[in-house]
Design goal:
Layout (H helix, E strand, L loop, with lengths): L15 E4 L3 H11 L1 E7 L6 E6 L2 E6 L5 H14 L4 E10 L9 E9 L19 H13 L4 E8 L11 H6 L4 E3 L2 H11 L2 E11 L9 H6 L2 H12 L1
Parallel strand pairs: 1-4, 1-5, 5-9, 6-7, 7-8
Antiparallel strand pairs: 2-3, 3-4, 5-8, 6-9
Helix pairs in contact: 2-5, 3-7
EC number: 2.4.2.3
Pfam family, one: PNP_UDP_1
InterPro entries: DeoD-type (IPR004402), Nucleoside_phosphorylase_d (IPR000845), Nucleoside_phosphorylase_sf (IPR035994)
Length: 236
């Protein structure tokens, strides 16, 4: 059942998918958190590893960067491989003064400047939101560890480098916790497929408070809290 972007057999992809943006992070999850992980697809360097996590079958597969990329993989996983739940586990920039670098954000909804919120129904802006059961499972797990965890909206931007910083104070005023590039696309795909999705994010830098950014190495290693919350959300 190969698609243009995923080349494997029926049953090779588990119904539950952990989806970081970075292919190296997907491989790291497979090697350090899964048992019996095997590479089932590697088209364009986007590896998909399937194994078990705490006895539950899961696949770790990267999304790449941005709404277009995550939308390709999520659509094919939901529509062609029987995937029921996808949890994005990644990083974001902090917006709210309530959050700090290294905190965990569980995105209950995603604002966006992408057309995914308006393209399907002319004249209507869709509300792009997470699955409640996944959200509850992730939040319960994260708060149970004593970690600094925040629940609320994020902003999914189509642009990593943008001159439109003037909109950030308005987003902050509305309670937006952070900015990233994929959650809204994933939530839109889940809605279209009648499936479920969630994004659990580690704050890697902050737009306002001047705290130190995570290095590329730290981004690889300091995401265990978000990963465990994501796993709990998938299993909820």
């Amino acid at each position: 059942m190969a698609t243009p972007h995923i080349a494997c057999e029926p049953g090779d992809i588990a119904p539950l998918v952990i989806m970081p943006g970075d292919p190296k992070r997907a491989e790291r999850i497979a090697k350090t958190r899964m048992k019996g992980a095997r590479l089932v697809s590697d088209v364009r360097g986007i590896g998909a590893w399937t194994g078990t996590v705490d006895g539950v079958a899961m696949t770790a597969m990267a999304s790449g960067m941005g709404v277009p990329s995550v939308s390709i993989y999520a659509t094919e996983l939901y529509s062609q491989f029987g995937v029921k739940r996808i949890c994005r586990v990644g990083t974001c920039g902090g917006i709210s003064k309530q959050v700090a670098v290294r905190d965990v954000i569980v995105a209950s909804s995603a604002h966006t400047n992408s057309s995914v919120s308006t393209i399907d129904i002319p004249g209507v802006t869709l509300s792009l939101a997470a699955s409640f059961d996944m959200l509850r499972g992730a939040v319960d797990q994260a708060r149970g560890t004593g970690a600094r965890v925040h629940v609320g909206s994020v902003y999914t931007s189509d642009f990593f480098y943008s001159s439109r910083m003037d909109i950030v104070p308005a987003l902050d005023k509305l309670g937006t916790l952070g900015v990233e590039m994929e959650a809204a696309g994933l939530y839109a795909c889940a809605m279209a497929a009648g499936a479920e999705a969630l994004a659990v994010l580690t704050v890697s830098d902050h737009l306002f408070d001047g705290s130190g950014d995570l290095t590329s190495d730290e981004r690889e290693t300091l995401f265990e809290g978000a990963l465990e919350a994501a796993i709990a959300g998938l299993k909820a």
